[in-house]
């Protein structure tokens, strides 16, 4: 499967228990053998297929992406993405959000993954903290992950914590200065997205 071109719209789909769980259209910034970078444009509509395990964002009525959007960096094989956030009228860089998730898998329409709830935040000044441990533990108890998956997620968390403690982050800090192309329209969910097959 080939790489996507800058500006392409691709679907970031979460797959849980063998069924699509959520779908988010994203805009490709960069794609190659070592890094996939996509941007979530403000106002992007989020899709929630019917699923036996209800999506918490759907329950909260989150239908669109708000704010300044977010940039997502993915390395093949990593069980997390690195997400960048900005705030305020001056679009000031806030920090790096390490979102634990399944390593991304390419599809004809984009890529599949699954959010793991457990996250880490590294602010622009270099301070970091773990986030959403309680939510992760709750999802383990509810059966979102089996025991082996939960153990793997915890190991990834420890590896990330060690990386942040050592200050050995791998991504280019220049991404903090990223600005989206003003000519990019808000991507939309394509017709029939609910029926796209799993690879």
UniProtKB/TrEMBL annotation:
Transmembrane region(s): none
Keywords: Hydrolase
Pfam family, one: DUF402
Superkingdom of the organism of origin: Bacteria
Entries under InterPro entries matching the protein: DUF402 (IPR007295), FomD-like_sf (IPR035930), Ntdp-like (IPR050212)
GO MF terms held by the record: hydrolase activity
All residue ranges annotated as the DUF402 domain in the record: 55-167
PANTHER family per UniProt: PTHR39159, UPF0374 PROTEIN YGAC (PTHR39159:SF1)
Name of this protein: Uncharacterized protein DUF402
Organism from which the protein derives: Saccharothrix variisporea
């Amino acid at each position: 499967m080939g790489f996507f071109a800058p500006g392409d719209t691709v679907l970031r789909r979460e797959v849980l228990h063998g069924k699509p769980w959520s779908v988010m259209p994203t805009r490709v910034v960069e794609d190659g053998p070592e890094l996939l970078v996509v941007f979530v444009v403000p106002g992007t509509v989020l899709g929630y297929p019917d699923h036996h395990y209800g999506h918490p964002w759907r329950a909260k009525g989150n239908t669109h992406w708000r704010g300044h959007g977010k940039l997502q960096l993915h390395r093949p094989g990593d069980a997390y993405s690195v997400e960048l956030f900005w705030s305020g009228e001056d679009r000031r860089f806030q920090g790096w959000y390490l979102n634990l998730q399944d390593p991304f898998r390419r599809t004809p329409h984009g890529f599949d993954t699954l959010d793991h709830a457990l996250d880490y935040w590294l602010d622009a000044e270099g301070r970091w903290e773990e986030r959403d441990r309680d939510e992760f533990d709750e999802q383990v108890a509810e059966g979102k992950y089996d025991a082996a998956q939960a153990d793997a997620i915890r190991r990834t968390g420890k590896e990330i914590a060690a990386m942040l403690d050592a200050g050995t982050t791998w991504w280019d800090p220049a991404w903090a200065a990223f600005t989206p192309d003003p000519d990019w329209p808000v991507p939309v969910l394509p017709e029939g997205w609910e029926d796209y097959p799993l690879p």
